[in-house]
Write a structure and sequence with these properties.
Blueprint: H1 10-16, H2 25-30, H3 39-45, E1 50-54, H4 59-64, E2 71-76, E3 83-85, H5 86-99, E4 104-106, E5 112-117, H6 119-131, E6 148-149, H7 159-173, H8 180-186, E7 221-225, E8 238-245, E9 248-256, E10 275-280, H9 285-299, H10 310-317, H11 319-328, H12 330-337, E11 364-367, E12 373-377, E13 383-384, E14 386-387, E15 390-391, H13 392-402, E16 406-409, E17 415-420, H14 425-434, H15 445-448, E18 450-452, H16 470-484, E19 493-496, E20 510-517, E21 524-530, E22 541-548, H17 552-566, H18 573-580, H19 582-591
Helix pairs in contact: 5-6, 5-13, 9-11, 9-12, 10-11, 16-17
């Protein structure tokens, strides 16, 4: 008697039947009679870099008028290491103006999102992104997402340039082999026209890494240096922490099983930081990455998507058993990568003692080490738009047209303007001031180290506001810190509109996670977490739950007062909260 087929989620069935992620995407895009696509197609479109959404602000008024949802698409770029030229950035602005909602958003994974793209403009949007030599392939979906890497163009020792080169190599290596993306979004393989004149192949192209069903869930890779964890390396499914000897990159500590998403109603769901697995040399990177992906592909949970991330596989197996499975896949991985069998040691060695020691957001003016400079410019919550006296989009358009040749996007949703001459500084500063754009020395540390996810109105998962209200929350925090003489303190505040953790709230000094909304007023209620750190190496803990947005600062005030009175010399807010403990800090309410 044969064993029963393992259970599969609905998405798994859709992927397997899609013929290499093609499905009916081309046919549905050509159907002008509808403004949205079918549910199965939304699942496949994620692999092509786009999510179908609707404007939730419009749901009630449209319903009253007897109308359906106001559908549109979010389109996300894949930009390894956040590297982008002036022409590409200007191209993104043009596409947003002509085909989107007029704004672009720098993401927490160093890419760009366009919002408000209607179905009739979706093909043109993705097609034009490829024309400016960017891509949206694998920016979403159950594959390796955008590969993150320290963006700073510090060239005094070549370490960061080498990291960027490796990030590019990894991005190419893990890109799906299907030609579906090229067929649908670039051009017809025979006519060169938009409309397809050939059908999909009978079978999808073989993909030695992803197979027929791709991965059980999304997979994130990030590279950092021990003295500069600006990309939150421990938050990734696969983190690569560079180990150096002077100016030499000797290898990487391989970290596995990070991930911020969770479902609070399910006890077996949780956010997690990655575990330290092994150390490899740079020439061993692609085989170890491949082996780890193969283990997740073959053993990750395909029946329950809430349990499908690699962190749950490692939790259920244990790190030692997971490492043994990776070792068992090394020969296959070496074959896929075209390197001799046995190129990696068996068993895999222990990690190097090196670990994260420092964080740098790279804001302000910095010498690059090659005679030029870069300017790290803070972008509140990553949103690039013109809004009253703040003419950010106009300023960046002028900068990239006349003064800046290339830039880097950061994992804090900011931008680095690169390769500037020293005599450009005054001109650039004046242009920014004329357009109401502030530099890092003109904002508080609370605002500098804060960021949020988009949440309402476009994210279908959002429970509360995030991007639209965090500036108000930060304003209240600023006032409280100023009154206590703590304005110079550096700590992270990160807000999300739901527990999925897109703004990495669970290892912040203070995390604010959307929990519910008041049925009458609509005011968001949040879970307040405390005790993470700026280094990104420690999870925080629940401090209070169901806190109305208007009461967040009131609930944090006793903690801040106690911090001021009882901190040790040089102790950060997160370190203080972790040392004292949540239970003791909750007791402060009763004492006051």
């Amino acid at each position: 008697m044969s064993e029963p087929e393992p259970k599969k989620s609905k998405v798994e069935v859709i992927k397997e039947a899609s013929c290499g992620l093609r499905g009916s995407i081309a046919d549905e895009l050509a159907d002008a009679a509808t403004d949205h696509v079918a549910d199965a197609t939304t699942k496949l479109l994620k692999f092509h870099g786009t999510y179908q959404q609707d404007d939730r602000d419009l749901r009630t008024p449209r319903r009253k008028e007897g109308l359906g949802k106001a559908y549109s698409f979010m389109v996300r770029n894949r930009i390894p290491g956040g590297k982008i030229t002036a022409a590409q950035f200007l191209g993104e602005l043009d596409i947003a103006d002509e085909l989107g909602n007029g704004t672009i958003r720098i993401t927490t994974r160093q890419s760009i999102q366009l919002h408000g793209v209607v179905k009739a403009n979706l093909w043109s949007t993705i097609h034009r992104i490829n024309e400016i030599k960017l891509s949206t392939q694998s920016a979403c979906g159950d594959v390796t997402r955008n590969v993150c890497c320290c963006p700073a163009p510090l060239r005094h020792n070549g370490l960061r340039d080498r990291l960027q080169e490796i990030a590019d190599e990894i991005a190419v290596h893990v890109r799906p082999k299907t030609q579906a993306y090229h067929e649908i979004w670039i051009k017809d393989p025979q006519s060169g026209e938009r409309q397809q004149v050939v059908g999909p192949p009978d079978e999808p192209e073989p993909d030695p890494i992803y197979g027929k069903a791709y991965l059980p869930r999304k997979f994130k890779i990030g590279l950092a240096l021990s003295d500069d964890n600006c990309i939150d390396v421990y938050d990734n499914d696969l983190g690569l922490l560079g180990v150096t000897n002077g100016d030499e990159l000797v290898g990487f500590n391989v970290l596995v099983g990070g991930g911020m998403g969770t479902t609070p109603s399910k006890k077996n769901c949780f956010p997690a930081l990655a575990h330290r697995l092994t150390f490899v040399t740079p020439d061993q990177l692609l085989p170890i990455i491949t082996a780890i992906i193969l283990v997740q592909r073959d053993f990750g949970n395909r029946a329950d998507r809430s349990q499908a991330r690699m962190k749950y596989l490692i939790h259920n197996l244990g790190l030692a058993a997971f490492k043994a499975k990776v070792e068992s896949y090394l020969s296959t991985a070496e074959s896929i990568c075209g390197v001799p069998d046995g190129s990696l040691p068996r068993p895999l060695p222990a990690p190097d003692p090196a670990d994260v020691t420092r964080h740098d957001d790279h804001m302000g003016w910095h010498a690059q080490g090659d005679g030029k400079f870069f300017l790290g410019l803070p972008i509140e919550n990553g949103r690039v738009k013109d809004d009253g006296p703040l003419q950010l989009k106009t300023a960046l358009r002028k900068l990239f047209t006349d003064h800046v040749s290339n830039a880097r996007l950061t994992a804090q949703q900011n931008i680095l303007l690169c390769d500037l001459e020293e005599d450009q500084r005054d001109t650039i500063q004046q242009l920014l001031a004329e357009h109401g754009v502030v530099t890092v020395d003109q904002i508080s540390n609370a605002r500098r180290f804060s960021f949020a996810c988009p949440a309402l109105p476009t994210c279908g998962l959002a429970i509360t506001e995030s991007e639209r209200v965090l500036p108000t929350v930060i304003g209240a925090v600023e006032a409280e810190l100023s009154s206590l003489g703590l304005a110079d303190e550096q700590f992270t505040i990160r807000m999300t509109g739901c527990p999925n953790g897109c703004a990495r709230p669970y290892n912040a000094d203070i995390g604010l996670v959307g929990r519910s909304a008041d049925g009458k007023t609509g005011e968001g209620r949040y879970t307040v977490f405390i005790g993470g750190n700026l280094l990104g190496t420690r999870m925080n803990k629940v401090f209070k739950d169901q806190v109305p947005m208007s009461r967040i600062v009131d609930e944090l005030r006793p903690v801040l007062v106690h911090f001021k009175q009882h901190r040790t010399a040089g102790e950060s807010l997160g370190d203080f909260c972790n040392r004292v403990g949540v239970e003791a800090l909750l007791q402060l309410d009763q004492e006051t």
